[in-house]
């Protein structure tokens, strides 16, 4: 690119970032070491094309997401924020106009005013304060549960049958102990004949599922599953003054319980996906997610889970939902997800080690050609500065802009604990979700029928079944996975066209060694690896039936038997 004069460079940024529709102001452009009157913005229309906020520690990522969330709220857009360090509670306290802050905001052309924002605080799994978010096992469904437990296809089909059995016998699955009770019953002497009637479920497989359920418990999921179930429509609300509500999920123990967060996220995205209508590229998003410390979402997650996240992120765009990942380096986000993040706010990267240097080079390669020396910009950007490129209203990348960011109007850093507890205590949602309930369900019914407590034991012995290898990295794989999710969750044919099947293109969540036939809803699952025995015609028939029932069941989970929503 021919070297421009400073004025030409500034002008190209000014033009590149002037949009017709609503936009979030990120800051003012820095060119040749000076801040200029050239505002760098992100069009609301393009926020469903997702984004990445990255940068080394202390460079201003969390403040950037606070700034964006505030403005989205101002435009009436609800926002969901995962708050790991508790520093987003500052949204409930007006900012302090210090001299330094006033000088900064004036220099970037911001008309700063101290403000607070409408916030709801949530908690997960009984950790920390906040309105507790719970989901019932039945609404979570056997498919998602299998993804979380990393079950293979045989085990997944068995789990579907178990859900179906519980459904036909009116054994409600509210919490993990309900599901455990049903499986324990089926594997007990009393339930033996029922288990045999279920065809595709072997005692050994039921035992494996039972052990995996115990793992979920150990990861703190017991308190997530149960009633009253959270209505995800709560996240789509506006305050009486028309501002979007900021839903802040406090996650103080995320480091110890990453599975709890990923379980919740996948349920939330799937639920929103099935509930929201298609909107395509709307004027403004319906909801925007900011997932701070996003590496914790992906670290150690199973491939099946990563694949589900990738597909859901891809599909949820057309529902008007934007997802912004906030993390130290783009390397923290899996490649397939990264490729879908059109809006980039890259704070300074460190370049101390050879690995840092590689990451820097990789990051630079993802930016459009630019008049900046990106190497310098990405290593020298100051705190609260970032290198930005977003998607313009025509769907093309904007020119790269080294940006000095605007500042939040609420407090940077945490609010006082009493401010937060006051907001939680006075929230109308506390009346609805505050206290866990334990209505009569499978556990109680089976106990009553047996006249004794269902033994709360886990069968021992036997090896945990093989883990499911995930799909490959190709576009075809992602599309196949996306199609499968759409078809199985929504129970209707997918709108995503079939791409030419490459190797492993259709092996989503199938053991690699058994990939033989094309995966489609209603198709009989391929022969299982070890348990139960492979080429057994009776079993094959049973599995076909299981799969059909499974599809029906999923249809029920997310389609016809949709939960009644309050939608206030
Ligand atoms: N836009 C801004 N305006 C004013 N000050 C800012 C801005 N961005 C960052 N800062 C200052 O930098 C500090 C660190 O920012 P922040 O907490 O967002 O960093 P971070 O990248 O999220 O760090 P970590 O990786 O440790 O979470 C803030 O507390 C604030 O003082
Ligand atoms: Mg941070």
From TrEMBL:
Write the protein's name: Ornithine/acetylornithine aminotransferase
| InterPro entries (UniProt xref) | HerA_C, P-loop_NTPase, T4SS_component
> What UniProt keywords apply to this chain's record, in alphabetical order?
Aminotransferase, Transferase
Which parts of this chain are annotated as the region Disordered?
453-478, 492-537
All copies of domain Helicase HerA-like C-terminal, residue ranges: 36-456
Q: Which PANTHER family match?
A: SLR6007 PROTEIN, UNCHARACTERIZED PROTEIN YJGR-RELATED
Question: A single Gene Ontology molecular function, please?
Answer: transaminase activity
Show the taxonomic lineage: Bacteria, Bacillati, Actinomycetota, Actinomycetes, Micrococcales
């Amino acid at each position: 690119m021919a070297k421009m004069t400073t004025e030409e460079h500034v002008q190209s940024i000014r033009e590149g970032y002037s949009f017709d529709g609503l936009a979030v102001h990120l800051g003012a452009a820095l060119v040749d070491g000076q801040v200029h009157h050239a505002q760098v913005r992100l069009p609301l229309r393009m926020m469903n094309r997702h984004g990445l906020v990255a940068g080394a520690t202390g460079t201003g990522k969390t403040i950037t997401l606070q700034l964006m969330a505030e403005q989205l709220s101002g435009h009436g857009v609800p926002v969901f924020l995962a708050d790991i360090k508790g520093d987003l509670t500052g949204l409930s306290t007006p900012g302090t106009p210090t001299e330094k802050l006033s000088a900064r905001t004036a220099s970037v052309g911001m008309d700063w005013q101290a403000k607070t924002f409408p916030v709801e605080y949530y908690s997960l799994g009984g950790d920390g304060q906040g309105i507790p978010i719970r989901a019932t096992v039945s609404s979570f469904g056997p498919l998602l549960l299998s993804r979380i437990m990393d079950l293979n296809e045989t085990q997944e089909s068995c789990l579907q049958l178990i859900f179906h059995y519980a459904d036909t016998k009116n054994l409600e699955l509210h919490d993990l102990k309900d599901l455990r009770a049903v499986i324990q019953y089926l594997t007990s002497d009393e339930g033996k004949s029922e288990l045999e009637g279920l065809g595709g479920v072997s005692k050994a497989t039921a035992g494996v599922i039972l052990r995996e359920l115990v793992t979920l418990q150990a990861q703190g999921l017991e308190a997530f599953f149960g009633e009253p179930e959270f209505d995800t429509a709560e996240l789509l609300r506006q305050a009486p003054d028309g501002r979007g509500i900021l839903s802040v999920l406090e996650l103080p123990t995320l480091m110890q319980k990453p599975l709890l967060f990923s379980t919740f996220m996948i349920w939330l995205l799937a639920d929103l996906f099935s509930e929201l209508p298609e909107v395509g590229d709307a004027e403004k998003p319906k909801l925007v997610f900011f997932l701070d410390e996003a590496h914790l979402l992906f670290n150690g997650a199973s491939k099946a889970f990563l694949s589900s996240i990738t597909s859901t992120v891809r599909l949820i765009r057309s529902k008007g939902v934007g997802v912004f990942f906030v993390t130290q380096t783009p390397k923290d986000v899996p490649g397939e997800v990264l490729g879908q993040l059109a809006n980039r706010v890259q704070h300074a990267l460190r370049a101390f080690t050879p690995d840092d240097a590689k990451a820097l080079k990789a990051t630079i390669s993802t930016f459009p050609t630019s008049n900046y020396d990106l190497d310098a910009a990405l290593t020298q950007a100051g705190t609260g500065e970032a290198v930005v490129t977003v998607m313009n209203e025509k769907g093309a990348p904007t020119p790269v802009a080294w940006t000095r960011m605007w500042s939040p109007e609420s407090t940077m850093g945490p609010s006082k604990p009493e401010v937060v507890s006051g907001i939680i205590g006075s929230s109308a949602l506390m009346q609805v979700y505050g206290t866990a309930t334990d209505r009569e369900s499978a556990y109680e019914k089976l106990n009553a029928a047996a006249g004794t407590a269902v033994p709360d034991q886990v069968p021992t012995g036997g090896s945990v079944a093989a883990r499911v290898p995930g799909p490959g990295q190709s576009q075809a794989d992602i599309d196949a996975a996306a199609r499968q999710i759409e078809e199985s969750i929504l129970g209707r044919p997918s709108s995503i066209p079939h791409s030419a099947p490459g190797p492993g293109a259709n092996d989503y969540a199938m053991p690699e060694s058994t990939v033989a036939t094309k995966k489609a809803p209603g198709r009989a699952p391929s022969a299982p690896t070890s348990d139960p025995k492979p080429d057994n015609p009776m079993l094959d028939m049973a599995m076909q039936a299981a799969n059909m029932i499974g599809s029906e069941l999923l249809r029920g989970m997310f389609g016809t038997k949709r939960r009644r929503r309050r939608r206030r």
